[in-house]
Each structure stands twice: as C-alpha cells, then as structure tokens.
Write a structure and sequence with these properties.
By secondary structure, the chain is α+β, with helices and mostly antiparallel strands. It has 3 helices and 7 strands, in the order E-H-E-E-E-E-E-E-H-H. It has 2 domains: about 120 residues, no CATH class; about 40 residues, no CATH class. Helices cover about 20% and strands about 40% of the residues. Strand 2 and strand 3 form a beta hairpin. The chain is elongated, with a radius of gyration of 23 Å. The structure holds zinc ion (2 copies).
C-alpha cells in the first residue's frame, strides 16, 4: 500500500494529515491481506513523518488441527516513523544515521506501508489458529476429517488421541 507524501513532507513540523484507507487486496511476500479498512494519521516530525495506522483486515490461515482454510480477522494498529531519503523542498539528500530506526521514504516520496504491514501481520497472526474452538482434527490413523464424520478406525485409539492432542494444544496456547 503506497501513499504519495510529498505534500505532507513540505508542511511545517506538527502538521497532521489523515488518510482514509480501503484496500481490497494487498499481496505481500509471504502473506495476503484482504479487506483492509481504516485510517492512517501522519504527523510531520523534524526528520520525517510519524504514521499511525488503525485498521482492520482479514488474513487467510490454516486450521492447526484439521488444515481447513479459515479467515482470521486482525486489528492492525501501529505507529512508525518514516524518514525521507531526500529533502522534500530542496530534493537534496538527507543525512540519516544508520541507527536512526524507522522506515525510509524513497526518492519518489512514496510512503510504502508494505513492509511494516508484513511485519505486524506476522506478529499478530495466531500461532495455532483453529476453525472452531473444539475442532476434532484429523484421524491420526486414516487422515479423515473427524469434524465431518467419525471414521472406521478403532474408537479407543481415536478418543485417547483426542484427549492427548487437546491437552497439548491448550498447553502451548496458554
Ligand atoms: Zn479445524
Ligand atoms: Zn481414521
């Protein structure tokens, strides 16, 4: 998601701009964000823009037990500083120390939310997403989806496995 901020960078320190965001699909390196909507508030700082994103979106995950595709709603909320490579008024190169932190705004004065979004989505994604809290998972013997129907495998084995895998999952989730 890319926003031209040349105008914002030419404003005096403290200037606030709010961008409404509505992106049906953002494809990133290792994930896809759908239906992102929210707002980006940009504040001119002495070296760049402080951007605060407040948005909701959906990412696709796979149930950790039965592997079915599920949609996970996410609230993405972050504040990051973006520092331009060039001065917006003189287009001269800005001095930015390596330890400055934050993200850079390239020579085109476009603020790219792609990389921070990717990082925050990775952080926010559930580690063990489940299609439903009591998902029965797959039969360890024949691979049948036990949410749909019980398979022909021996019941005692299935039940013992179910208790065990439930215990394991709740231990790791907690
Ligand atoms: Zn499931
Ligand atoms: Zn089975």
């Amino acid at each position: 998601m890319r926003i031209n901020v040349l105008n914002e960078l030419r404003q005096p320190v403290g200037t606030v701009t709010v961008f409404d965001l509505c992106e049906p699909l953002i494809s990133l390196e290792d994930t896809e964000i759908r239906g992102l909507s929210g707002s980006l508030t940009s504040v001119r700082t002495n070296r760049g823009l402080l951007a605060s994103l407040k948005a909701s979106a959906t990412v696709s995950e796979q149930c950790a037990r039965c592997l079915v595709a599920i949609d996970c709603p996410l609230s993405i909320d972050f504040e990051e500083e973006f520092i331009p490579i060039l001065d917006a008024n003189t287009t001269r190169r800005m001095r930015v120390s390596d330890g400055a932190g934050g993200f850079r705004i390239g020579r085109d004065f476009v603020l790219d939310l792609g990389e921070p979004l990717r990082q925050y989505v990775l952080m926010l994604e559930p580690q063990k997403p489940l299609c439903q809290p009591n998902c029965a998972g797959l039969c360890p013997a024949c691979g049948a989806d036990l949410n749909a129907a019980s398979c022909g495998c021996t019941r005692t084995f299935d039940e013992r496995w179910g208790v065990l895998s439930g215990f394991e999952a709740s231990k790791k989730e907690g």
